[in-house]
Amino acid sequence: MPIKNRFAEMHADITAWRRDIHQHPEILFDTHRTSSLVADKLRAFGCDDVVEEVGRTGVVGVIKGRADGSGKVIGLRADMDALPIQEATGVDYASKTDGAMHACGHDGHTAMLLGAAQYLSETRNFDGTVVVIFQPAEEGGGGGREMCDDGMMDRWGIQEVYGMHNWPGRPVGEFAIRTGPFFAATDLLEIEFEGVGGHAAKPHETIDTTLMAAHAVTMLQSIVSRNVDPIDRIVVSITSFETSSKAFNVIPQKVQIMGTVRTMSTEARDLAEKRVTEICEGVASTFGGTARVQYKRNYPVMVNHDEQTAFAADVARSVSGQCDEAPLVMGGEDFAFMLEERPGAYILVGNGDTAMVHHPEYNFNDEAIPAGCSWWAEIVEQRLSIAS
Amino acid sequence: MPIKNRLADTHAEITNWRHHLHAHPELDFDVHETAGFVVERLREFGVDDITTGIGKTGVVAVIKGRTDTRGRVVGLRADMDALPINEATGLDYASKHPGKMHACGHDGHTSILLGAAQYLAETRNFDGTVVLAFQPAEEGGGGGREMVNDGLIDRWGIQEVYGLHNMPGLPTGSFAIRPGALLASADEFEVTVTGKGGHAAAPHQSIDPNVAAAHVILGLQSITSRNVDPLASAVVSVCALHSDIDTHNIIPQVTRMTGTVRALDPDVRDFVEARVKEIATATAQAHQCEARVNYTVGYPVTVNHADHTEYAAAAARAVAGDVTTDFPPIMAAEDFSFMLNACPGAYIMLGNGDGPMVHRPEYQFNDDAIPAGASWFVELVEQRMPAQ
Questions:
Q1: CA atoms within 13 A on the CB side of B112
Q2: What is the pLDDT of residue A85?
């Protein structure tokens, strides 16, 4: 069974929704227009219940099947937020907001799940309940965490959850998935070094914080090169280095460095946190200064569950005739929080040969819509199949 | 089918061979007594042909099956050499040669293959030819390479080749394997940094090669922390650093460092080699020194062929029931890799039970693993060349 016919008919509508959302990108939790658009559409489709402001600006919709003998409840999740990037696609429906852009395809994810919600509301050809989840702030804000913390899983009795992300470089509409750890844990570093500032002509009267921080950056390399098992996966990147003064003749009092740590295992994550702290405090102490280390654990490793992954792959094969094994991704994904609370799976759908996500020339590929929507609908109809 | 009954019968005899070899360890290519012992046993078994001096001190033997209707030839390999370690096991059959010890279990590997040879020569319950390869100098000397260069694969027409290694920490007699890269490549590098020697009290009149070398070591950390794909695996370790001066008041003229590079992918290996050279050369130059890099390519990546991994796992399953087929790769190296580069085949890990790691002075090969190991070799032969 390939693409569902109904989605071929709805393709133009869903594309129009996607482009509307694309023109009005909203960052993090400020997805007010998008959330309203989603809630209005869900109500218009005749969803049984629509609840806004879950996880601040998230939206939850409930669609009951024709039967409910199974008592099963499945959650389907899409993300709604955009990125602080200046769009450079040149498309006629480009962002109308300066410095904001749907550069990760969440416009496409939201439109596809809306399309699936319309179809499921029309047909209700399943035995059980579907909960559609539209979350804000996937891009670093932890909107998924907020929705979970708001009690979403218990409140709607969700038993398993599924998610999807478009993937540039894969043929349009082709799927890929892997079981177990899939996306990396994403932690944030913020370290403030303090020495004794002073005149640049008299370094001996100062404690040079720039030198201290430079040594720390060099030494942080040894976490990957010396400490973590080479078979394990880890990235430690220092992304920002800022002195408290900008003059050419002042040794600064403070230096702040920022960065990220990506890991695929609890062992590597724990080790990285310990070593970052030891290295920065140790180096500062060596020079007679201090370091204030903030290691913020953000998104956990996103782990696909075996059974749901096998099912999601079977469904993908029924839609597109294939489902590849996806490689590990060092990026983070806050669907991880939902997968920590409930079993489920996250799948990639090909976006064709486009620019990579987070690039100013990236654009979601509307040709992927029928495959994505069909996968959602099939997840429901196969998992909650009506006994014949 | 579990352990072969006949190998339960010969277990005590094989154990005696193992203890004899253990008491008389020999290093590198100097395995004359061991090779002599192997030849004596093979003669007693009545194998069809024995050739010595292949790869300097290696031994090759041929056992013909009851029939040979399809011209099939399977190679089985064991290593014979010991390590320059002072034994500290306290066993009554401990090494009689101070400073030499079978601390990697090659005594066990050789005995296991002898046990399998005895069985195969007695029963000949297969259709084709078995070629046994007993190699010297696995521990760094490249005995496997020497045997391949001496025509091992072509001269005896070996069509597929198999080897095993004991693995402390895995349950005794269990098996673990993976397709693709199982063990790393191992290269050596030496960086000679030349500056300008002088009085340690007047550093400004010298060019200090020690400081330059220290910066080279720091720079080399960035290869794995910044350059290599975090999803790939590589190790760069600087292991020794020595200047041409051992006093406290002279800045040396020359400082040398030596180290090793490990990788699980030939492209990553080439890339790391290039970066080692670039970093050493440019960093030394930045310190007004000159670096000469001597990079020696050693053992290649041990890559199990996919089909033959399946054959090896099938034979292991017949012996032990369950087999781990996704054993994680190890950054150590193995010169069976030369045989696998010349001929399809697979390398499997045989559980040695709990106990000290290989290369430790307390390490002990576990004689209880012998029946499983020998049964695996026999089973492989009988499955790959079933009797007509």
A1: 31
A2: 95
Low-confidence ranges of chain A (pLDDT < 50): none
Q: Do B223 and A225 touch (CB under 8 A)?
A: yes
Radius of gyration of chain A (CA): 24
Q: Please tell me if residue B223 touches chain A, with a CB cutoff of 8 Å.
A: yes
Q: Is the CB of B229 inside 8 Å of chain A's CB atoms?
A: no
Burial class (CB in 10 A: 0-12, 13-18, 19+), A270: exposed
Nearest CA-CA partner of B56 in B137, B157, B156: B137
Rounded-to-integer distance, Cα B256 and Cα B271, Å: 23
pLDDT for A188-217, tens place per residue? Answer: 999 999 999 999 999 999 999 999 999 999
**B327 vs chain A: nearest CA distance in angstroms?**
11
Distance CA A287, CA A209 (A): 8
Locus of tokens 């496409």: A108
Its pTM stands at 0.83
Q: How far is B42 from chain A (nearest CA, A)?
A: 41
CA nearest to B235 within chain A: A230
Neighbours of A104 (CB within 10 A): 24
A contacts of B220 (beta carbons < 8 Å)? 225
Q: Report the C-alpha gap between B264 and A318 in whole angstroms.
A: 36
Residue in chain B closest to A183 (alpha carbons) equals B231
pLDDT by 10-residue block (mean), chain B, 388 residues: 81 98 98 98 98 98 97 98 96 96 98 98 97 96 96 98 98 97 96 95 92 95 95 94 89 95 96 97 96 96 98 97 95 96 98 96 97 97 96
B106 in Cβ contact with B80 (< 8 Å): yes
Contact state of B233 with A234 under an 8 Å Cβ cutoff: no
Residue B308 contacts A where some CB pair is shorter than 8 Å: no
